């Protein structure tokens, strides 16, 4: 019997690249995303290329009940999830006083609420059988204050702290929890965040396939976390020895609109 990996945000970007890596190693897949047509396209490609079984679940994880419904659908189909990948996440660009609070509450639900629900549901099953792996998409944003993306950075700080805490709780129970921390990556994230005018897009974006490979290898090596990319490792390292106000000012400048005066 092939093992099975469930991946949220699986139809593009880092999530899709991770799906390919699991399929390449003959994991069956459960792909979760909002758009059924995109899910079907990805499912067909992965099944044809790698010969694995792919199940799709179309759910909008902005909704509070959706993560519970994903878990229940998996149980109803009698599937065992050996690896959970919480990849789905979004941000919103702009000064906090100007941004849409309802959009931000949706982002908190997606980036934190649904991640916590899926983690709890599947972690209980993994601990009960003494085996399993969870890969959480954090970000170097988890270690850096993020002016113009304050809520997104705050949610990723939660993901990293939460992941490190539960890793400690289950370290002797056969379950691995790994946090993947990429920097700015060439995905649809910036479009969804209305962030296409930010200077950070000109800073050299990471390749999502490279990020996925770093996360996959860290998970399989039972690492607690991995910062993807040397540039991002250096940035986080520098932030550790730089006063927080200076780090915030640096990030503010990096993420400012391209037409803003230097």
UniProtKB/TrEMBL annotation:
GO terms for molecular function: oxidoreductase activity. Keywords: Oxidoreductase. It holds the Pfam family adh_short. Belongs to the short-chain dehydrogenases/reductases (SDR) family. This is SDR family oxidoreductase. It comes from Mucilaginibacter straminoryzae.
